[in-house]
Structures are given as C-alpha cells and as structure tokens.
C-alpha cells in the first residue's frame, strides 16, 4: 500500500465526496480533513472512516481541528469557499473566496512544504492566481481543477447528442473555468473519429453552448449549491496522476509564463501531471478563431485579477 497523505480543506459537497472516493478506493494511506465547521468535519471523518471499513480499504481518515495536525501532505485539495446560487456567476464569489483562499494558504503551507496543491474553489483561475501569490510557491505546485470537469461535461453532451459512444469520447476544453471557456470541438473525438464527421455544425454549436453552461445548469436545478460528483471525480484523477507519478495529460489551470504568448495569468491548458505536479505544459496549435476565444477567456480572468490587485 502507498504511504501517501492527501489533505482536503473544505469538506462541503465537493470535499466530502472527494474524501469518500479517496478513502473507499484506497487511493492514499492517510486522509486529513480540515474545515472551519469543527463538528461537521469530525462527522465527515467518522462517516467516511466507517464507509472505509465497510469497503475494506485501509485509508485512515482524520479530522484536523488544529493547524499543526494538518501536516506532511503529498497533495492538498482546497475546496474552501462559498458556492454560487442560481443567477450568480462564479465571478460573484471573487472577493469572499479570495480572502478565504489567502487565509487557507497561509495556514497550511508551513506544515506542508512538499505538497502539490489542487485548487477547486471559484472563480477557479483567479483562486489559483491568488494561491500562487500568497504562497510564493512555484507554478508547478499549485494547479486548478476545472478542465477535466468541463471536458467531462462536453463528453456528456456529445453522448447525449449522439446516443452512442459513451466511454469512447475524448472531449477537450481549454481556457478559464468561466462563461468564456473554450470547448475545442476540433480536438474532440469519438473513438478517434472527429466530431464533424458524426455531428452537424448546429449540433456541435449546441454542445459548445451546453458545455459552457454546464455548471450553471446544475446550480439552477439544485437551488442551494453547485455540482459535486463530477468535480470530485475530476479531482480524483489529478490526485492519482500526481501520487502515482503517472505523467498523464489533463487540461488544468496553471500560471502561464510565455506559453500561448501569455504571462502572469492563470488559464486552463493541457498539462502533464506527475509527482512534481505540472511537469510540462502542452501548447496546442490553435486556429485563429480558437486563439481569439482563448484571448477573450484570458481577458475575463485578467479582469478578476485586476479587481483583486485593487481591492485586496
Ligand atoms: O458551477 C459552479 O459554480 C461550480 C463549479 O465551478 C462547476 O462548474 O460545477
């Protein structure tokens, strides 16, 4: 069994679903949970530990009530922050979640010098940016989870349209995790067959629209929060790639430093994930139209970062 420790900060719907998955699937040996709600985090740790024993997994789950107990993690996932409600954009969470992110980073980094941090809180790209600035860590060690989620949503909508091919769909989304994300129909396939071979332009446009709106659709239906199964599962894939040094390629939010001709901005691009976090950034050969969409998405994230620079 591996001797890896994963820490989760924020055990709301995404954090607790992720914890349940990691513990019952034996993905790490120790799972540390942290949340400002002390009784709640203890309840989650107990419930998940009991599920773990039912599943015969050997992961040990603990609630950490003191900062110093949350230590020596190999990977830390931060889901802390408020979730949007119907009618809100992820950007509406900016200032509240930026304060929470800064405080979480300040608390956790002294006792976790070797961790790779995965940020899940929204607005995602701006939260990765602020976590990097607050920690002063190198960009390979602080990564945002969103591209896998958005690509999974796109795969779902492709399947919904086609009615076949589930499990064989490779969908690709890049850009920020916001209304201007860039679903890449040209880079998406069903068993290697390009989408344009099996779907009309109208169908593809509809898939793109639904993908961009995928999070909001669930927020509207839930009324009290946002999606959690797909975000948690997407995060699990990133954790496994890092803990097992898999060198797998996933779309993730990273700080760009010249890639795609942008710097000092966070956006979703394909990266290779391994033991050191982001080990390589892959630059796709985009068409002009895709470059324009990417640039619009970068501009939206930049607006948020400018607000943070002014107000924090
Ligand atoms: O939609 C949200 O607000 C949560 C998350 O970013 C998602 O896409 O599910």
From TrEMBL:
Q: Name one GO molecular function term.
A: L-lactate dehydrogenase (NAD+) activity
Identify the domain of life: Bacteria
Is Nuclease there in the keyword field?
Answer: no
Keyword set, alphabetical order: NAD, Oxidoreductase, Tricarboxylic acid cycle
Q: Which GO terms describe its biological process?
A: lactate metabolic process; tricarboxylic acid cycle
CDD domains reported for this sequence: LDH-like_MDH (cd01339)
Q: One Pfam family, short name please?
A: Ldh_1_C
Family assignment from sequence similarity: Belongs to the LDH/MDH superfamily.
User: Would you tell me the protein name for this molecule?
Assistant: Malate dehydrogenase
Where does this protein come from, organism-wise?
A: Arcobacter cloacae
